[in-house]
Amino acid sequence: MAGLFVPEFIDYHDGQKVVRVADWPLLPPNQNIVEFRPSGVSQRDYTLSVTVTYNEVDPTSGTEVTQTATHSWRCCVIHDYSSGRDKLLEYMNASRE
Predict the structure, then answer these.
(1) What CA dihedral angle connects 55, 60, 62 and 66, to 10 degrees?
(2) 10 burial via Cβ count (<10 Å: 0-12, 13-18, 19+)
(3) From CA 89, how far away is CA 21, in angstroms rounded?
(4) What are φ and ψ of residue 74, in 5° steps?
(5) DSSP state, 26?
(6) DSSP letters along 30-88, please?
(7) Which residue stretches of the chain have pLDDT < 70?
């Protein structure tokens, strides 16, 4: 699920100016982070639908009949913000080495 809740932005110092990037892979190593704003989206909802077509024998006529059945599930993914916190800590610890 990586990338599902990307940060709003990450600002860092590049010399005398502040540069903004949209996600961790775009952040150059060993930069002084000015501000990290996590995703403002706290939940994503999806609907997973499965349709199956199958053949069965009609018990009354003995003929083969094609049937279709569909079922749907609602999937809710809730952002717990720990991935952004962990990535920020990882980045800050790496820049101290």
Answers:
(1) -20
(2) buried
(3) 17
(4) -95, 125
(5) G
(6) T-EEEEEE--S--EEEEEEEEEEEEEEE-TTT--EEEEEEEEEEEEEEE--SHHHHHHH
(7) 1-2, 83, 95-97
**What does the pLDDT look like over 84-94, one tens digit per residue?**
777 778 877 77
Tokens of 66: 């094609």
Q: How far is CA 74 from the centre of its chain?
A: 16
Percent of the chain with pLDDT over 70: 92
AA letter at 7: P
How far from chain centre, in Å, is Cα 89? 20
Report the amino acid identity of residue 89: L
Threshold 0.90, pTM exceeds: no
For residue 94, what are the contacts with CB-CB under 8 A and spacing of at least 6?
29, 30
Mean pLDDT of the chain: 87
